[in-house]
Amino acid sequence: MQDLSHFHQPITDLFPFPKTAKDWEPYRLSQEQLDFFEEFGYLSGIKLLNEGQIEVLKKELDEVADPKHPLHHLFHEFHSNESADPNTVLFHSLGHWRISKAFHDVIWNPAFVMAASQLLGDRKVRFWHDQLFCKPAHHGGVVAWHQDYSYWTRTIKMQHLTCWCGLDYATTENGCLYYVPGSHRWGLLEKPALAGQMDGLMEFLTEEQKAAFKPVAIELKAGYGTFHHPLLVHGSYENRSPRSRRAFVLNVFADGTISNSDDELLKGVPVIPKGHKMEGQFFPLLN
């Protein structure tokens, strides 16, 4: 067993990578989809996985979620419950692409890579980091309202993108994602704690922003993804349903993004000095 971050290409045949420009065409977003993202700050309902791929990823999720996994030390973060309340469980981790072959290769899923490149302005795309967000049945916790970039200012300029993909059918009952359309135009807000209390962000909003705070539920079938702007306000409510809500997140940025810190960017990753380009073993180019 080894650290898969050394491999900057797919290592299985789970996500066949296109070889020609024609092969890429089925994955291309329409101009209407790109315009929707520009206006509202998100784009949902993009099919990323088939049933076979979902099953492989769910199996490997169960394996890496075990704290006794022999490569557990490769996680950048691992929280069996990021909430302090055992009655509201939020499993959250970063770095499983280094451990699981399927989660390594999903980064090179052509449906994801094409959409990410287009939404970043037809740019070359680099991997930033991955996440798992899992809410168990009956007592799954919340993810507070937040903007992703408020946690990422250690990298500049802001040319980032997030993709959330469910491994279960995500509904309002089991804690699906919610977006606040248009909030990507509000500028950078203060960052709240990510788990526990849903509404910590509200104290940082203006009266005008509070009036425009009209969340929409992003219900998605398993295998479908949703992309959002790094400043879009989003969150998710608790899961009190009898069904789990498992999802993974892929975070990327446009090639040319630089470090804005002389500190460690992710736990276990060598320092990239402030002003230096984000690249190397942990930030591979995807296209």
Automatic annotation (TrEMBL):
One of its GO terms (molecular function) is iron ion binding. Pfam families: PhyH (PF05721). It comes from the Bacteria. Keywords: Dioxygenase, Oxidoreductase. Its cofactor is Fe(2+). PANTHER family: ECTOINE DIOXYGENASE (PTHR20883:SF48), PHYTANOYL-COA DIOXYGENASE DOMAIN CONTAINING 1 (PTHR20883). This is Phytanoyl-CoA dioxygenase. It comes from Mariniradius saccharolyticus AK6.
